[in-house]
């Protein structure tokens, strides 16, 4: 267990570690602590990491830095968005091919940065920061487990997990201990090659599949869980909708789905023909929306019971973390 993960766990258990204090300064105040005595005083002055966090958020320095950048709140008067969520099979393949070209490019040029767009994870710097990159993967899986616990659920300890958009395997590695089998799915050969090497050093029950056609999902085995984080958002709405249709169909009775995607961006629109005509060969990251109503409609068709839709607003992007169970 690396020190970052160990210290995080110490904080969760009620002990505020020195490392937790240093990261509070870095993440919330954007600077290092004044000195080691300050670090020790912060450790002694807070009974838990929750108390530490609350103290930092309430301090004048954080308030000054955060002034004017607080999250936008939904008003309930947002207008509907004109979004096409369906198209014919040939057009669907064109959409998928376009996305695959972009992510294959990132897989060849800057794979870790494309997964987490932080300058520390650029190709020429990722090795010196890999411990942090890996620890963030474990943090995301721990949040998944906490969401299950909050809703009275727990993983069965066996079965199959389908992970959409596995990238370089930063989450696959931490999902693997909770299942008999984990299948990481991605459109980028470069990402998948790195995932196989990384996860192979930690787990023997993970396998990987390149998604070339959406029909490839139909050949997957029945699964007990589906997991996807900061992946669906990079796909046009018809792709997101089709993936959810096919994955939900693969879940066994009682199977769990935990996934994140944007459900509202002011001014967003999606017209399939316009998109294909104007995107061309652009290889930049894209941010797309699948309305919450469309997500619930797909879920209902497959007997998926929504248990939680946790909202996160980043700038103008409204995302939901969905937890569902198949009845």
Strand residue content: 15-25%
How many DSSP-defined strands?
A: 7
- Spatial order of strands in the largest sheet: 3-2-1-4-5-7-6
CATH class identity of the largest domain:
Alpha Beta
Q: Would you identify the regions where 5 or more consecutive residues have pLDDT less than 50?
A: 1-13
**Rg, nearest Å:** 21 Å
Q: What summary fits the major beta sheet?
A: 7 strands, mixed
Number of helices: 13
Shape: globular
The count of domains is: 2
Give the integer mean of the pLDDT values.
Answer: 90
For the record, the CATH architecture of the largest domain stands as 3-Layer(aba) Sandwich
CATH topology of the largest domain: Rossmann fold
Sheet/helix structural class: alpha/beta
Q: CATH homologous superfamily of the largest domain?
A: Vaccinia Virus protein VP39
Question: Helix share of residues?
Answer: 40-55%
Terminal CA distance reads 37 Å
What is the string of helix and strand elements? HHHHHHHHEHEHEEHEHHEE
């Amino acid at each position: 267990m690396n020190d970052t993960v160990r210290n995080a766990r110490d904080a969760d258990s009620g002990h505020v570690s020195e490392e937790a204090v240093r990261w509070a300064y870095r993440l919330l105040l954007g600077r290092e602590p004044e000195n080691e005595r300050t670090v020790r005083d912060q450790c002694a002055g807070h009974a838990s990491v929750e108390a530490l966090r609350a103290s930092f958020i309430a301090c004048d320095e954080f308030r000054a830095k955060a002034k004017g950048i607080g999250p936008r709140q939904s008003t309930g008067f947002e207008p509907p968005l004109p979004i096409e969520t369906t198209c014919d099979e040939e057009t669907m393949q064109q959409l998928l091919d376009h996305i695959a070209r972009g992510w294959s490019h990132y897989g060849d040029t800057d794979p870790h940065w494309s997964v987490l767009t932080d300058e520390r994870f650029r190709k020429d710097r990722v090795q010196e920061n890999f411990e942090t990159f890996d620890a963030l993967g474990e943090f995301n899986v721990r949040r998944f487990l906490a969401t299950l616990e909050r809703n009275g659920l727990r993983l069965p300890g066996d079965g199959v997990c389908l992970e959409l958009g596995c990238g370089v395997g930063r989450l696959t590695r931490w999902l693997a201990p909770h299942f008999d089998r984990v299948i990481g799915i991605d459109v980028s050969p470069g990402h998948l090659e790195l995932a196989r090497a990384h996860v192979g050093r930690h787990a023997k029950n993970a396998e990987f599949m390149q998604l070339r056609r959406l029909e490839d999902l139909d050949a997957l085995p029945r699964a007990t869980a589906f997991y996807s984080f900061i992946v669906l958002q990079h796909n046009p709405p018809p792709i997101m909708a089709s993936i959810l249709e096919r994955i939900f169909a693969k879940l066994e009775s009682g199977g769990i789905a935990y996934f994140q995607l944007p459900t509202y961006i002011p001014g967003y629109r999606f017209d399939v023909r316009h998109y294909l005509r104007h995107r061309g060969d652009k290889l930049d990251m894209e941010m797309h929306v699948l309305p919450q109503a469309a997500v619930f409609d797909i879920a209902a068709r497959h007997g998926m019971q929504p248990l939680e839709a946790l909202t996160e607003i980043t700038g103008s992007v409204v995302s939901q973390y969905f937890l569902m169970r198949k009845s």
